[in-house]
TrEMBL record:
InterPro entries: Poly_Biosynth_Transport, Polysacc_synth
The keyword Membrane belongs to this UniProt entry's keyword annotation: yes
Protein known as: O-antigen/teichoic acid export membrane protein
Annotated transmembrane regions: 32-53, 59-83, 103-125, 131-153, 165-189, 195-214, 308-331, 343-365, 377-396, 402-422
Species name: Roseibium algicola
Topology in membrane: Multi-pass membrane protein
């Protein structure tokens, strides 16, 4: 009797779990968790190889180039890939026009962004790295990575998380495979040599991603959607500021301390970023639903966002505990060059929690038409990041840089939720809410 009762309870729980897994939100969350879980494994293996192959100093220089290039990449296309995501999530039939618009905008802006990015990097790191190496890595991230991102956003607009997984995992896997081959060749791998392998992996990733989109979603209709340029520019500025919040601290540490210190700091942040996979997966899975909830008004959007907060906390707290437990073992894996990386990881262990809380708030502001408020918050905190991290590094080395960095993230999270309750959503405008 007890066995039969237990069997029925187990069956009921199984049926309930199966039913939940078939809900779109849960299914997409699971898909994105798998996506970021696979990326986590690949990125950690890649990180282990690249950090050991290049050493802390060259790794710090490589991350500086990549960080600045990725930030500059938000200027390529002027936010058109995020515009595509918002518009197509609501009107799937408009995909071909917004894909064509994105490609046109990328073609128009890339020639202007490239030389400025190379010049800035040359100012930051000088003759330490050959100009040709800077240029190769910069082109890879400004153009090739951008095409991969546009392809992933296209699938995300249709809630096709599994195909987005294919694109993201393929891009990461190719870099890992090329790195593995490069380390097997005779002699030690230099940053100059790795730049060419990085470029080749980027070409293959971009070609594969574009081919999948053309096959599954259709060809672009090349047209410039002038009515949406304003909203697109807002997205560009906002995500440029987001990129600044994520990556500006690395070159600041390199410039304030040294390439070696910057490599150790970047390694710690890479581990934090990889461990944030469950939180980031949840934010991705719920992103387009904020726009749909906003169709029913600000109250609906806010209620939806508030319901997401306990889940965010539930996902982030175990990550923090995990990071605190494994921090001391990092030098055993990465080598003595990264002896101070555990300090960075411990100082930033609760960063995924703040990222999740501010991310939910950002989606509410964005979906309810308060992009300008969100943009102002991001720009102000990004600009604050440079002097604050520089001051922290000067006062307390890597620990100071990490703690001051964490303080800026606290300010962003608090400011985001303050303005959610303090400001009202504007009345809908045709040029910003409909294609």
């Amino acid at each position: 009797m007890n066995s039969s009762s237990a069997s029925r309870k187990f069956r009921a729980l199984y049926d309930k779990a199966l039913g939940l897994s078939r809900r779109p939100l849960v299914a997409n969350t699971i898909s994105y968790t798998i996506n970021f879980g696979l990326l986590l494994v690949i990125q950690l293996v890649f990180f282990l190889f690249i950090s050991r192959a290049l050493g802390a100093a060259d790794y710090g220089l490589f991350i500086t180039i990549v960080s600045v290039s990725i930030m500059a990449g938000f200027l390529v296309g002027l936010g058109s890939e995020y515009l595509l995501l918002q518009r197509v999530a609501v009107e799937p039939q408009s995909f071909d026009r917004y894909l064509g618009h994105s490609l046109i905008m990328m073609g128009l802006t890339f020639p202007f962004v490239l030389p400025g990015t190379i010049a800035l990097l040359y100012v930051l790191i000088g003759d330490t790295v050959p100009l040709s190496t800077i240029a190769i890595v910069t082109v890879s991230d400004l153009l090739l990575t951008k095409l991969v991102i546009l392809s992933a956003q296209s699938y995300m607009a249709f809630d096709r998380a599994r195909k987005q997984i294919v694109i993201n995992v393929l891009a990461a896997s190719l870099k890992l495979a090329f790195l593995f081959v490069a380390t097997l060749l005779p002699g030690s791998l230099t940053l100059q040599e790795w730049a060419w392998w990085y470029f080749a992996a980027g070409i293959l990733s971009a070609l594969a991603a574009c081919w999948l989109v053309l096959r599954d979603l259709g060809r672009p209709t090349f047209t410039l959607i002038r009515d949406d340029l304003k909203l697109s520019l807002l997205y560009c500025i906002e995500f440029f500021a987001i990129g600044g919040m994520k990556d500006l601290d690395k070159p600041v540490v390199v410039h304030t301390l040294s390439a070696d210190a910057g490599g150790q700091y970047a390694a710690g942040f890479r581990i934090i970023d990889a461990a944030s996979a469950p939180v980031r997966a949840f934010l991705y899975a719920t992103y387009t639903r904020h726009f749909r909830q906003a169709q029913d008004g600000q109250a609906s959007s806010l209620a939806f966002g508030v319901k997401l907060l306990p889940v965010t906390v539930f996902l982030a707290l175990p990550v923090a505990v995990f990071l605190l437990l494994i921090a001391g073992f990092i030098p055993l894996v990465l080598g003595e060059d990264f002896a101070e990386t555990p300090t960075v990881v411990m100082c930033l262990a609760f960063y995924p929690l703040l990222m999740g809380l501010s991310g939910v708030g950002a989606d509410i502001l964005r979906a309810t038409g308060r992009q300008r408020v969100r943009m102002a918050l991001l720009i102000s905190t990004s600009l604050l990041l440079i002097p604050v991290v520089s001051l922290g590094a000067a006062l307390g080395g890597l620990a100071g840089a990490a703690l001051f960095r964490f303080g800026v993230q606290i300010a962003l999270t608090a400011g985001t939720w303050f303005f959610i309750f303090w400001t009202k959503a504007p009345a809908p405008e045709p040029d910003e809410t409909a294609g």
